Amino acid sequence: EAQKATERYVFYHPKMGQQLIERLVLEQDLHYALDNGEIYLEYQPQINLRTGSIDSVEALVRWQHPEKGLISPAAFIPIAEETGLIVPIGEWILETACRQVKQWHNEGISHIGVAVNLSTGQFFQQNLVGMVEDILARTDLPPHYLELEITESMTVDTNHMADILHDLKQLGVKIAVDDFGTGYSSMYYLKKFPIDCLKIDRSFVRNVQSDHHDDVLISMMISMAKHLELKVVAEGVEEIGQLSFLADCDIIQGYLFSRPIDPEELSANFDTIQKK
Ligand code: C2E
Ligand code: CA
Ligand code: CA
Ligand code: CA
């Protein structure tokens, strides 16, 4: 009997079993993470290159797991998507971000906007548009302060997505294409969707000083965005030397100015970051 049991598992690498178990445990824990207060947001400033001011922030979700410590969104957002937990978590993220920005407005930082990442699963959920509308109403945030980031890798039915994006635009929120240039359908997205903003992916920004190809590609993306009258954000800017290649961007986001930080830290350091 015992031998049979071993035989049955002979095709599985032990490490694979381990990974599956890890993943199942995370999945279980994620069900309770929101209610346990383990999920929170950090905010990364988006600097207006011309004025030097913090025009807006991007909300980035974090999971402080009680035993495993900090888990990156790249690790748990896919699990949230597969389990459907992205719906309650996504709603919490959106409401928390809108509430925070409204609070900054009330504290006198009255111009600041917020960018929130939307994931694929949220386009499948019941009434995404109604949810956004309700959250804007509940938090009393004027819609134009909210920008929703969508990624090119979203393999949703594009007609369905275009419909939803047009409805979201009707509410008065802005739409940004995240990780621009990395997907298969960048140009198609610009043609098909009501886009306000294009975020040049970090993979281009990273090598801009050393790789002439990236320099050329970035120039082309900026020029294209200008012709289409889109706002351009360069993300992942870490070094001052990269700025000279990004001079025609509208917004710079990256460790050069600030890492994603918690809202209290941002409030306290608002002026310091702007003076950089
Ligand atoms: P993303 O939307 O492209 O976010 C940018 C990522 O780059 C963030 O990682 C940010 O911390 C990091 N970053 C910013 N500046 C720099 C820099 O100068 N250098 C480097 N090396 N990295 C920089 P993070 O927070 O770990 O998020 C990873 C991804 O997880 C995000 O990529 C996004 O796709 C997803 N994500 C994060 N928060 C949310 C969320 O609230 N909802 C959804 N659906 N996805 C989220
Ligand atoms: Ca993003
Ligand atoms: Ca991005
Ligand atoms: Ca990304």
UniProtKB/TrEMBL annotation:
Protein name per its UniProtKB record: EAL domain-containing protein
From-to range in the entire protein, with total length: 435 to 710 of 721
Domain of life: Bacteria
Stretches assigned to the EAL domain: 23-274
